[in-house]
Amino acid sequence: MTYFLQQFLNALQLGSIYALIALGYTMVYGILTMINFAHGDLFMIGAFFCFIAAGLLKLPFVPTLLISMAGVALLGVAIERVAYKPLRNAPRVSAIITALGVGLFLENFTLVFSPYPQSVPTLIPNQTWMLGPVSISSLQIIIVLLSIGLMILLDLIVQKTMIGMAMRAISWDKAIVPLMGVPLNLIISITFAIGTSLGAAAGVMYAQAFPVIDPYMGIMVGWKAFISAVVGGIGNIRGAMIGGFILGLVEIMVAAFMPSTYRDFVAFALLLVLLIFRPHGILGKPRPQKV
Amino acid sequence: MSAADVLLSVQDLQVSYNNIRAVKGISFDVHEGEIVSLIGANGAGKSSTLRAISGLIPYTGTIAFQGKDLHKIPADQLVALGIAQVPEGRGIFGNLTVYENLKLATWQRKDKQELPKDYERVFTIFPRLKERRSQQAGTLSGGEQQMLAVGRALMSRGRVMLLDEPSMGLAPVLVREIFRIILEINKTGTTILLVEQNANMALRVANRGYVLETGVITLSGSGSELLGNPRVKEAYLGG
Ligand SMILES: Nc1ncnc2c1ncn2[C@@H]1O[C@H](COP(=O)(O)OP(=O)(O)OP(=O)(O)O)[C@@H](O)[C@H]1O
Ligand SMILES: [Mg+2]
After folding, report:
1. Which CATH architecture has domain B32-55+73-237?
2. What per-residue confidence (pLDDT) applies to A289?
3. Of A37, A135, B38, B168, which residue is least crowded by CB atoms under 10 Å?
4. Where are its TM segments located (chain B) (predicted)?
5. Based on the number of CB atoms within 10 Å of its own CB, is A114 exposed (0-12), middle (13-18) or buried (19 or more)?
6. Which residue from A172, A181, A291 is facing B93, i.e. has the nearest CB?
């Protein structure tokens, strides 16, 4: 039981990182019905911003986090404008292939500057507390609380503000949105900025939890987060959060109680099985037919 | 009427989709305070004309609103100028509540202190919407959705309201209701450009009308003139 509780804490930590990244996939899908396959690589860039800010510039945690989020947000907005916007009315598969290309570009670009893995300095003083028999670290607490805080903030933005309302409207029918006087391009840029900055926050936290980073680190994590988004119901923000925690839990528990090589196999099997029984994911709804 | 009264002027408007010409150089005016109806059969180019005026699709020719050329102005900013479109098939946001749909339409409004009065006005015209203000708009009936679409246009405070087939798919009672409301909105100072296949109703409420056939205006005149015109009778009023 102790072992289980301990693993549960680890699952929460991993799950919050997946959930943060999954939000980026789901938000972009929600407004543009495309999978931004470069998103995992933007998470990687977020981790490299952490390396630059903390390792090279010796900045503390909060400025590092903010620099990374802002830097990746700008990059995300630029990518949308340059690479995706011209394809907005093209078949979705063209946009998806472009996204894969952007991802490869980001990986190779980073590889030029960092051919070897880099180690990221620890920014959060490592302290461990015992909750009964279970140990919990300062980093785990910060990762989980920060992630949940960011998710609550996002939920408030989406549900309560005019910008959030505009995002939801775009996800329903973006052709009509300009008739409301809403600037479509601005809202799409804001969505990219928010989604990618959450991925960057995940990158910073991931780099703190697993401090050796390399240009390919975003691939597998990105796939896992993508699965999380699909499991939760792609396009559904609360679904992405739930999906992230489910995937974190499944992975940690598989690694804890089965040979750890089963981990990724089980994660992908979960996706397949879920899609058979709930093709729209846990919270996703089939879109009611428009009249 | 003098040229000073012209609110919306369309000159030699052409719209093409992949080299297919849908609107082939039409010209018409809408004067301040009028109801103008544009009638025509399926595929005549009515929606294309409205979409061009709202800046949703590229066109050639000149569209001017209050004397101002609209060519380079993005669609969302046209709403701020006072052009409000109620799109074909209503175009309500089914995943937003009724209230949120109305609120979104106030995006570009600067006079936020006037908003409570305008919500009140919309809810007075459409009491149904008030009852259902917290309901997801996708759960509304077709008629209620049409009311919401008109309510939204009112919330954006358009000086001209472009209505694309507001009677489509509604039961006869509701059609009469919608046209009664259009007249009411017009009386409170909003100019109306109405696109319809229901030529009978559309011409009865209109000051003036135009008949659009395969991208060309073939007839124009006052509402009553067109209602009495034998060609209109034969083609659009069931003989
Ligand atoms: N997005 C589009 N792509 C290609 N062709 C289009 C497009 N929209 C309209 N058309 C064509 O342009 C012509 C005019 O269409 P439009 O929608 O303006 O007609 P309408 O008068 O509004 O018809 P309806 O009464 O059926 O709504 C039609 O032949 C239509 O097939
Ligand atoms: Mg039409």
Report:
1. 3-Layer(aba) Sandwich (3.40)
2. 42
3. A135
4. none
5. middle
6. A172
User: Using one digit for the tens of pLDDT, what is the confidence trace for B118-161?
Assistant: 999 999 999 999 999 999 999 999 999 999 999 999 999 999 99
Candidates B48, B56, B59, B168: which one to mutate for ligand 1, based on the most atoms within 8 Å of Cβ? B48
DSSP assignment string, A216-283 = THHHHHHHHHHHHHHHH-TT-HHHHHHHHHHHHHHHHHHHHHS-GGGHHHHHHHHHHHHHHH-TT-SS
| Tens-place pLDDT, residues A161-172 | 999 999 999 999
ipTM of the complex: 0.94
The answer to whether residue B213 neighbours chain A at the CB level (below 8 Å) is no
**Window 35-74 of B, Cβ < 8 Å to A:** 54-56, 74
Residue A161: count of CB within 10 angstroms of its CB:
11
* Among A204, A197, A69, A201, residue whose Cα is nearest residue A123: A204
* Contact between B126 and B151 (Cβ < 8 Å): yes
Q: Which of A180, A184, A291 to mutate to test the interface with B (most CBs of B within 10 A)?
A: A180
Domain residues of chain B, as ranges?
A: 32-55+73-237
Look up the pTM and report it: 0.92
